[in-house]
Structures are given as structure tokens and as C-alpha cells.
Amino acid sequence: MKIVINPSERELAAALARPKLESANLDSLISDVFSTVEKKRDQALKAFTLQFDQVEIDDLVVSEIEFTEAEQAISTELKTAIRIAAQNIERFHRSQENREMEVETTSGVICWRKSVPIQTIGLYVPGGTAPLFSTVLMLGVPAKIAENPIRYLCTPPDKQGKIHPAILFAAKTAGIDTVYKIGGAQAIAAMSLGTETIPKADKIFGPGNQYVTAAKVYAQRLGIAIDIPAGPSEVLVAADDSIPTSFVAADLLAQAEHGIDSQVIFLTNDESYAQEVLKEVERQLEILPRAGIATEALDSSTVIVVEAEKWGDLINLYAPEHLIIMGKYEEQIVQQVTNAGSIFIGKNTAESFGDYASGTNHTLPTSGFARAYSGVSLDSFVKKITYQKITDEGLRNLGQTVITMAEAEKLQGHANAVKVRLDSVFPDIPSDKLQELELIGKVSVLSRKSVEGFIRKDLRDLKPYSSARDEFEGKGEVFLDANENGMVTAYNRYPDPLQQELKVAISEVKNIPTETIFLGNGSDEVLDLIFRLTTTPFLDSVTYLNPSYGMYSVLAKINGLRTKTIDLDRNFQIADSEILAQAAGSRLLVLCNPNNPTGNVIPKDRLLEIVREFEGVVVIDEAYIDFCPAYSMADEVNNYSNLIVVQTLSKAYGMAGLRIGMAIASPEWIAALNRIKPPYNLSSLVQETAIKELKTIPWNEIKTEIISERERLTDFLKSHSLVTEVFPSEANFILFRMPNASDYYKKLIEHGVVVRDRSSQFNCSETLRVSIGSKIENNQFIQIMQNL
Ligand SMILES: *Cc1c(COP(=O)(O)O)cnc(C)c1O
Predict the structure, then answer these.
(1) Which one of 290, 323, 560, 665 is at 20 to 30 Å from 52 when CA atoms are compared?
(2) 93-97, 120-124, 467-471, 543-547: least confidently modelled range
(3) Sheet holding 109-117, edge to edge
(4) Tell me, what's the pLDDT at 446?
């Protein structure tokens, strides 16, 4: 090996130059082989085999008997070794199986990609003195994982017409059951063209001599794929003097013994260490069986001595098939390497591990191809098909984009292919009109056709939990279907999951059709279920007013949603256009009406306009609506698929302790909520008690009384000298401003009256909120306030 020390750029280029491959002069010979095989097929193969391999072959196919004989002919140790290697190769290549996800690039536009095995795989393994059965594993195992439907091996026979038993055993181990006794360029020609016996391959793999290599290049012209462009094997060993010279010398010789054209580069930073390594090479050469080949290969190889800082660049310039990096700089250099086929890191990592048994593939890019090519992997045996599917929604969302681009490229046919479809989905809207609608944001009106579109995608086909009581309808006598306890009878039965009787009672009192009612454990549960049903965690946002009911932000958090708040002005007012602008893009808009803690209302006509304009779902929380029924949106729910009204029995109906809230929405919404709710969310005790309360208590009288008490308290607060502002309320509470509110809050408590300090809420500084209680309670509050 020649040594170059701190080479100039020119010297370096010369040192790293690879021997020129001569392939052109084989062209006519190869094309002769191909045309003969094309004409005479199997007969040509036998003739070439006699001519080049000096053996007469009757049957090109290796028989089962030959496989069995091969298995008997090799040692147990070798069989075990081959099996271990195959296992590791399989493990490593299985890790390359990746399932790719479906991606919805735009709503309704679904794209994905899938690996599909190449149909017919032809493997080539050279024969001769060194039987490369390791290559059989490296090519056969990934093909087995890829499940290529047809896979076979071609390899030349020896003078007795036999195949080396290790090759046959490795083939069986790798799942290759078909082996043909044919080698050289004629084998490649047979795989490319097909003969009576050998099927035409779609892709050819495997190493070979210059004839085989030239034949593979020729095959490409016929449209057959090949694994990678081939050249002589090569290694670059980079090591410093912390590594025993025997390690480095052995690695250099391991490469050199491959063939006289093998290239070996040794990179180090110390000249005397380089000399030591060369002496060690001489010593080891003496006892190497293939010393002749190795010596010749080493003659054209080089030692480069250069400081370690430059190793990274030098390696990338050379782009070695194999890179062995050992010593103090190994981690650092590995980070810098961008061009290499396979990298062996650290003093224990001889290239031989990768050549045989660690699991990585040893079919690697040579001759600098590592700059752009990868070695053989599972990917080499598959092709990846892309798929896509456009739904009506996708057509609507992306159609115009495609039309615009196609027309700009002056490909009207492309544009038309989308236009005809758009027109058929929206027959009454011409596509140019649709574009207009899309631009002004009105296209969402079209998507309002179904509640389905508002439901979180992955919940649309959710199969609900089915309880025993759901499944059995009708009259039974003995119920042994729900693991209840029949020994006791007070509360042993599960309650009606759909609370039919209670819904009828509510329907009578509130004048709301039962089929538009959903019941939950308080409206807090109802709101939570609406959030879950309509929004996708970490993707969607919810919008609500500020200040408003504090649970909205909590629910947003626990449902993983971003929040947008719309700040009200000092009188807690805001324009509709502002609400719509700020809520744009949100999945949910929650409006509390009358608002808590302010008590004011947004009139119905304005709410309807918001519902019409907003693209997502509008939830109107009407916890206090019973005090101002004229503002209720409950009678609009069948007109708008994006409207859900939430009410409760906690406030006006005096049942806060029973926990009954409701969603009022179109029956489609009710069905969807029923699918996701816990099956028995209202206990039988609650259902019975609520029915009784609803039927026996004179609710209208009580509501009237609360309202008149509210007016009494309002008048009182307005006349109070310490109260600076009383906000008009349509609910059963009053928000009022009083400087030093928190002091008065404490003083009220000292006298036994608890109100709510709302000072920390937005635009609510120095405010207290007082609920309307019984006459006696209200008098107590008035009395204490008067004495402050
Ligand atoms: C009190 C209240 C609720 C909660 O009602 P429950 O049915 O008792 O859970 C919901 N929204 C608003 C605005 C409230 O003030």
C-alpha cells in the first residue's frame, strides 16, 4: 500500500480514484447472448452452460432430492450458523415494514400509500470457488418478508452439474424453493426474457463478474429493474493509534481478499501508526490462504495520513461502500458522514458482522453510488402504490383549487373532469357560482344538510355500548339479564337508560317535544358530551364570551381544545359581526343566554342570525331561560342542524340537587348524544323524584315570584348609597358594582349571608353577584346591606 501524507486536493483525488470500469467492449458479446437466449431459450441455456461451465445439464431445475442431499452434506455447525444469520436478517428487515397512515390532506380528501410486492423476483448468486451463500440469505430473506409471489434463484453448476450444498440450504432457509442451474450472462438473459423453464423476472438482484454486471445493465434496457449498479467491493477503515494494529490490518485484508479489483483505503492521523499497521498487514498476509489476491488488491490501495478534523469531509468525498470507524473520534465522525453504504462503529465492529450475520444487508452501493443510492432493503422488493379517494366534501373543498390550476395551465380537459363532478353533486349551483360561495364562506351552508357533518369524524360510526335493558324490549317476568341482585327489590334494577317517563313529564311542563330532549347528569354533563361529540382533541377550538360561565374553559381544557374568548364591553354587550369574526374557524360557539354572571340577553333574532352564519355548531346555554321564556331558542332546533340548546332543572325548577340537565336539539343530535353517553346516567331515584316534583309544584307561580323578588332587590340595590352600578338581569341573580367589593363580601359572610364575589372576572372589577332567594332570605340580605 502506498502512503500519502497530508495530500493536496489533487493528490487526494488520485488516491481516492476508483479503477475505471470497462463495460463497453462486452456489449456485442452480451447482446449475442441475449438474442440467442431469446431465440433458442432453454436449449441456448444448456449450450452456454456446456460452453462456459464445461458441464452438460439435463434439467435446469434443482430437484427436491438435491435439496435433501445438500442438507445432509453440510455440518450441523454451518446449518446453525446459517439459521442464526437468517433470523437476524429477518429481524432487521422486518423492522423496515412500515404501515403508513391515511392522511386527510383536506377535509374529504383522503390519501394513503401502501407497499405492494413486486410480482417476480430473480436472484443471482455466483458459483465458483467461494460459494456466496450469505448473499442468498441477504436477498432471499427480504423477498420472503415482502412476499413476492414468484421468487427464484439462478446460480451456475459445478463440473459435476451440482450446486454447492450451502447455497441450496441457505436458499431453503430463506424461503426460496426454486433454484435453476444456470450462471453468467446467460442466466441474466434468461431472467430478463423468460424461457420454457425460467419465468421472466420484473427485478433482478445479485452480484457477479463483469459479464453478469454487463448483462444486468443490458437487462435494464429491456425494462427489467436491477438492485443497484455494481462495482468492485471497497472499504474505508478510519482508525487512530488507540486501536490495536492487528484489528486494522485484519479489516484491510478482509476486504482485499475479495478480489484483485477490491479497493481498500486506510485513513489515520499518525504516520508511525500507519507504518505499524502496514507491518502487521505483512505478517497476517503470510498465513492468509487468499494471499495472492489480497496482495494484488493492496498494491492499488492507499493509506492516507491526515488530521482527524478532515476525516469527515474525506469520507464523504469518497462515499465508501463500507466504512469502519474506530477510536477516539468515532462518534464525532459518524455524525459528519453523509455518504456511505454501511457504517461499522467501534473497535469490535468488524465489517464481517454485517457481511454475514448481524442483520443488516450486505448488498451495498459501490463506486461512489453511496452518494445517492441505498443498499438493498425490504423496500427493494416492493413498490409503493399511492391511493386517494375524494368524498363529496372533498370535491367541494378542493375542486375549485384543481380547476383554477388546470385552467391556468391551459388544460381545460383536466378542469372539466372536476367540473362535471361538482355540477353533479350540486346540480342547482353552477360551479362558477360555487366558487363565489366558497369565497364568501357560504359554502358551509351547503354542508349543513346533516348533523353527521358536525360530529367528530372518528365517532360517526361508533357502535354504542349496548346494555341489557337496551337489548330487551317488551314484557318479561323474570329478569336475569343484567347481573342485578334479585334478593332485594328497592333499587336493584338498572334505571331506564333513555329516561322516557321523565322526558314526557318535562315535555308537558316545558312544552318541548320528547324526541328533541336529551337528559344528562346536570347540564354540566350535557355540555361535556356535546364537546366530546363535536370536537377533535388537539385539533379544534371552542369559542365563548368573556365573561361567561366558568365551566366552558374547564370543559375546553379537559377535552383538549384550544379556546377563543370574545371580550364583552363594559356593559357586557358585543356586535354580532364581532362574535362571528372571532368565532370563525372554531368547531363550537357556546353562548350563555341569559349570560352568567351578567344576567343580560342577546335577543332571539340576533341569535338566529349567528346560527345561520356560523360554520360550526352553536350551543345556547339557557340555564336561566325559564325566567325569560320569550328569548328561548328551543323551538328553533328543528330548523337548524347546527343548533343545540342546553337547559337545566337546577335553576328555575329548583332541582339542583337532583342533577338533571338537558340538550334540546333535532332528533338526529339526540340519537348521536345517546350513542356516547354513559348508559345509566340518571338514577331511578332521580328520575322518579323529578317526575313527582314536576307534576306537583306550581312552577309558574314560583317563577313569577322570583321575578318580582328580582325587581324588588334591583330597586333596593339601585337605591343603595354604596352600590355604584346595578346590571339589568333577566335571570335569578343580580350583578352589582360596589367599590371594595371583597371587603363587603366578607362583611356579608360575617352576618351569615354568602353571595358571590365576581371581581376577578373580565370587566367585572368590584362586583358581587347575588342570587334571588326566598322572601325571608332576600330580606336578610337587604337588612345586612342596609347596615353596612
Ligand atoms: C348553573 C349553570 C349550569 C349548570 O347547570 P347544572 O344543570 O346544574 O349542571 C350550566 N350553565 C350555566 C350558565 C349555569 O349558570
Answers:
(1) 290
(2) 467-471
(3) 103-106, 109-117, 382-390
(4) 40
According to the model, what pLDDT value does residue 447 have? 41
CATH class of 498-696: alpha beta
Cα–Cα distance list, 667 to 117, 516, 641, 653 (Å): 49, 5, 10, 24
Indicate the fold that domain 700-787 takes in CATH. Answer: Aspartate Aminotransferase, domain 1 (3.90.1150)
Closest CA to 176 of 230, 139, 227, 220: 139
* Catalytically active residues, by annotation: 321-322
Q: Is there a contact between 340 and 320 (Cβ–Cβ < 8 Å)? A: yes
Q: Coil, strand or helix: which one is 664?
A: strand
The residue type of 215 is A
Per-residue pLDDT at 470: 76
Lowest mean pLDDT among 254-263, 273-282, 468-477, 775-784: 468-477
The CATH topology of domain 231-362 is: Rossmann fold (3.40.50)
pLDDT in tens, 202-242: 999 998 888 898 999 999 999 999 999 878 889 999 999 99
Which residues are CB-contacts of 783 (< 8 A; sequence separation ≥ 6)?
none
Q: Using the structure block, give the residue that is written with the C-alpha cell 421468487.
A: 151
Query: Is residue 653 lining ligand 1, measured as CB closer than 6 Å?
Result: no
Mutate to test the pocket of ligand 1, among 598, 645, 648 (most ligand atoms within 8 A of CB): 648
Whether ligand 1 lies within 6 angstroms of the CB of 525 is answered as no
User: How far is it, in rounded angstroms, from Cα 480 to Cα 574?
Assistant: 58
- What is the atom index within ligand 1 of the atom nearest the CA of 527? 10
Q: How far is the CA of 151 from the centre of ligand 1 (A)?
A: 69
pTM of the prediction? 0.57
Grid coordinates given for 202: 420484473
Averaged pLDDT, 395-416: 91
In ligand 1, which atom is closest to the CA atom of 651?
1
Query: Kind of pairing, strands 382-390 and 109-117?
Result: antiparallel
Residue 449 has pLDDT above 90, yes or no: no
Domain residue limits, the chain: 47-92+119-226, 231-362, 395-445, 498-696, 700-787
Answer whether 216's CB lies under 8 Å from 204's CB.
Answer: yes
23, 35, 375, 565 from 216: Cα distances, Å: 11, 15, 17, 67
Given a contact cutoff of 8 angstroms between Cβ atoms, the answer to whether 268 and 240 are in contact is yes
* Nearest Cα residue to 254 out of 123, 383, 354: 354
Residue 184: how many other CB atoms lie within 10 Å: 24
Ligand 1 pocket member 733 (CB < 6 A):
no
CA distance 453 to 107: 11
pLDDT in tens, 649-688: 999 999 999 999 999 999 999 999 999 999 999 999 999 9
Q: What is the best residue among 596, 647, 662, 730 to mutate for testing ligand 1's pocket, by most ligand atoms within 8 Å of CB? A: 596
339-376 residue pLDDT tens: 999 999 999 999 999 999 999 999 999 999 999 999 99
Q: How far is ligand 1, taken at its centre, from the CA of residue 524, in Å?
A: 6
Helices (H) and strands (E) in the chain, counts: 30, 25
Cα gap 113→115, rounded to integer Å:
7
By the 10 Å C-beta count (0-12 exposed, 13-18 middle, 19+ buried), 752 is classed as exposed
Euclidean distance between the first and final Cα of the chain, in Å? Answer: 104
Task: Give mean pLDDT, residues 417-421.
Answer: 91
- Homologous superfamily of domain range 47-92+119-226: Nitrogenase molybdenum iron protein domain (3.40.50.1980)
Q: What is the pLDDT of residue 471?
A: 79
* b/e map 579-589, b = 16+ CB within 10 Å: bbebbeebbbb
Nearest to 93 by CA among 145, 151, 137: 145
CB 131 within 8 A of CB 164: yes
